[in-house]
Input
Amino acid sequence: MKTSIYSLLPFLVITPLVAEEAIDPDRAANTILLTDSGVKNLRLETIEVEERTFNETIFAIGRVEDVPGRGYAISSRIPGRALTVNPRIGDRVKRGETLIEVESRQPGTPPPIISLKALRDGVVTETNIIEGKPVNPDDALLTIADRSLMWVSAEIPEQRAAGIKEGTKAEISFPALGGDPVTATLLRFGVEADATAGSVHGIFELENSTGRLSPGMRAELNIIISSRQDVMAVPEESIQGDPSSRLVYVKDLELENAFVKAPVVLGASSGGWVEVLEGLFPGDDVVTRGSYALGFAGAGGGPSLREALDAAHGHKHNEDGSEMTPEQLAAEEKAHGDDHGHEGGSAPKWLVYYAGGITVAFLIAIQLLWNKRRKVGASHA
Output
């Protein structure tokens, strides 16, 4: 027995498409949309939020110093005259390298020549000899510093020093060098406090295999007094707003060049990072560089939220961000059609149709009248 498809219609269940929910009004009000050029002009940079080790630190300023006792002098055991002097101040020398050649005063043809070599690797910090100058055993001809290890002497406020012990770690930055901080260990405290500054000296030792550190160089220290694991934190530069209403800008997950203001509750701050207690989730992309300028971007000159959603989803949306229903789409198309009918001074569509109908009726009436006159003429003939 054949069954017609029409007989099954009453039993068919048609599942309606679920329309998108309207965008949260708060999100819509707090979304900043930019153009590609706007993002480039603001030089925006973001960082992905993740749980990290959060160090509570004490900030201190310090200076780089040579490690006492790690330098040495080059001198001659015999009197004579300097034939060659190879290094200059600032030159790095290697152990066993010939630094100076001295012609002895002892008789001989030619006179004996003695080579003075480097005892260890180092940097020439002082020179008291030139070629041709007499040499005496009491003279320190060259002074060489072994700078493979250096000290950083930090000025630690006395009221904070009680919580710092030998072996404490510090993250040290050098403004003259840039780059990431290096980690060093508190070796010991200095033998004297600075009564004028109200501080004590903390001596941190660190390697200097590259030789980039020089005595007198400024150092900025974040001395670690405690650490906590799995803390969500963001860089300080990403935090905006007033003290009672802090916020960050989070990159929108679906809209291009869109950034949403996210209110946050903050905890401790230390070492350029701020703990976030509420308002963010791991994986959020938070604006760091350019965050302050983004607050003045306003609408940003970019597309509207509706236009951005249309581009992202591939279909039309209402002003509140919800997906347009078929009825709304038809109404919009009709409105656009009416608008186009008015453009350039042309008549609305209904008037065009009305005028067309009148014209057709008039032509039919003329044709009927013409036919009637022809029949009358034919009968009189």
In short: The two ends are 72 Å apart (CA to CA). The CA atoms of residues 75 and 139 lie 6 Å apart.
